[in-house]
User: Fold SPASM domain peptide maturase of grasp-with-spasm system from Chryseobacterium camelliae.
Amino acid sequence: MNYFNVFSNIMITKGITRVLISDLQRNVSELYPLELHDLIEELKACSIEDVLSNYDEESKTIVQDYLDFLLEKEFGFITQDDWDKNFPPLSYEYQDYNILSNIFIELDTIDVLQTLQQSIENLEIKHMVIYCQRALLLEEFMEIDRMFARSPLEGIEIFSQFHETIDNDFIHALDKNTARIYNLVFYSCEKAPFRAKNSLRFTVTFTGESLKISSCGKVNLDYFSTNLPKVLEAVNHNSCLHKKIGIDVHGNIKNCPAMLQSYGNVKNTTLEQALNHKDFKKYWNVTKDDIKVCKDCEFRYICTDCRAYTERTDTDHDGRDISKPLKCGYDPYTGIWEDWSTHPLKKKAMDHYALSDKTKAS
Assistant:
């Protein structure tokens, strides 16, 4: 007897109309018809010979073609015996020993970073994302990096408004004098002033978009990520809020700067105190399997969830918002993508968040 075994790095996510097969080693995901999922389930339970015996001659040819396809794509392999017990599936457990892993700060002046510096070190936060609603100066970029020179902080990503002094010399000065900045995004830039060299230590992106905090939460194929740690986090926890903390432009401590609920202000509350608030972690373990509509979507483990902007249609028994993200235009029941901002059923929620036409389009 011959048996088909799925490689442990292959993750199969069943949706209502399609199945997503993710190769967690190659970091790629591809869509396939549901019948392929059904065949794989049959092959898990029975030998290839037994599966083929269930079909007529015409269907056998189709099944064999599918099997050849699965082998060609390296989604699995064939053994002579039922050795499935010798090939244990990949564990989907997620381990993150940090108290907090990420901090997102909506920055006005860099003075707030000095207020947060000790807490960031105490909580051993590894990654920081900074959004500044103005153009940061070269000295400010370098001061941000220098401020955390002796902290556990490993990486800093900065979104800053573009200004005309940003040129090759500006970027190379940052490359030479900083160590933790790994990604720079300059927004409201009509045309990239130059092409950043690949030899830089960090990545540089210029975009014409006028980014705002309200721009977050968009669900788009371009933002999907088949990254093993991210996928495992999404299976077990909320893919956006788990072990994250945010500071809005007024210094309010939140799960995300775009969310309404605050757990204190940096002027009189430490990050440690905010973290101990009884409601701070309430969304940490809300997965896509808990979210209406999302739970039926084939993209649910490679998509980032958003609790800041939702359709506001459903809550669970703990009072948590489990509605579909507002800025998602995908319908898993039809497999069709549409412009979320023009959907009539979303208008009430958009009015609630006071999203202007400009914001909707961004």
User: Anything to note?
Assistant: The first strand starts at residue 3 and ends at 6. The mean pLDDT is 93.
